[in-house]
Fold this sequence. Notes:
Layout: H1 3-8, H2 31-42
Organism: Streptomyces olivaceiscleroticus
Protein name: N-acetylmuramoyl-L-alanine amidase domain-containing protein
Amino acid sequence: MSASQWNGFRGICGHQHVPENDHGDPGSLDFRHVLELAKKKFGSNS
């Protein structure tokens, strides 16, 4: 992402998307769990 895209982004992303970061290592994320936590914190639209 560009710096302006990063500043306007709302959500979850991996290291490779952060401006000026030169690596991508989000690892083996349990996205189901990440989404459950996000829904608890921010609510759900589904």
